[in-house]
Amino acid sequence: MPPLDSAHAAAPPERALGGARDPVTSTGGALFHAGEIFTSAELQAMRLEGLVHLVIGDSYLRSDFREDPATRSQAAARSVPSSIRPRVALGRSCAAWIYGCAPPPVVISLVTDHRRRTTALPPFTPAVMHQVALGPFDVNLVGGVSVTTPLRTALDIAVHGEDGDAVAILRAIGRAADLGCPLRLVEAALMNTSRVPGKTRALTRLRTAQQQGGGT
Hints:
The chain is built from seven helices and eight strands, in the order E-H-E-E-H-E-H-E-E-E-E-H-H-H-H. The protein is α+β, with helices and mostly antiparallel strands. Helix 6 packs antiparallel against helix 7.
């Protein structure tokens, strides 16, 4: 696959998940990032006053706006150094959170194709980089940010997710009608993928999620 930022790569499709695009206010937007219009201290004070709420990292949303996938993806992207944003996608538990199917991640998961070179994350970046094989249909845009598709996200959660919440996240993905990702499709995709470490455990998680009403 060409690099995400390559001139030869087609732009990933934008996934429409409801909610307004880039809401505009008198201050230029509803999503605020520390160090731009307001300092971190000012935003924290505004949070205490109930004017904004924390989305993730140093990004805050006005309290009179509803958080949605586009808001979450744009906020998470601000926690990633701007120099590498074009070359990575938000994935795993972070992508599941963006889709509204998981709690906010403690650490932002980034994925990049292993067939190309990517600059290492600077020290103290609140993110972890995973070099993986990315197919041409594994990434889409959410709010203009590269995020793994619901199908790829579900596969990654099944294989790499934590024991304590993997099944619950898969169940939520399967139930989310706007994602169009029934777990039987995820199971079929996994069954047809060879050389996957932990495949048996991942299939067990998927089947358990379906038995618990995770959508089929």
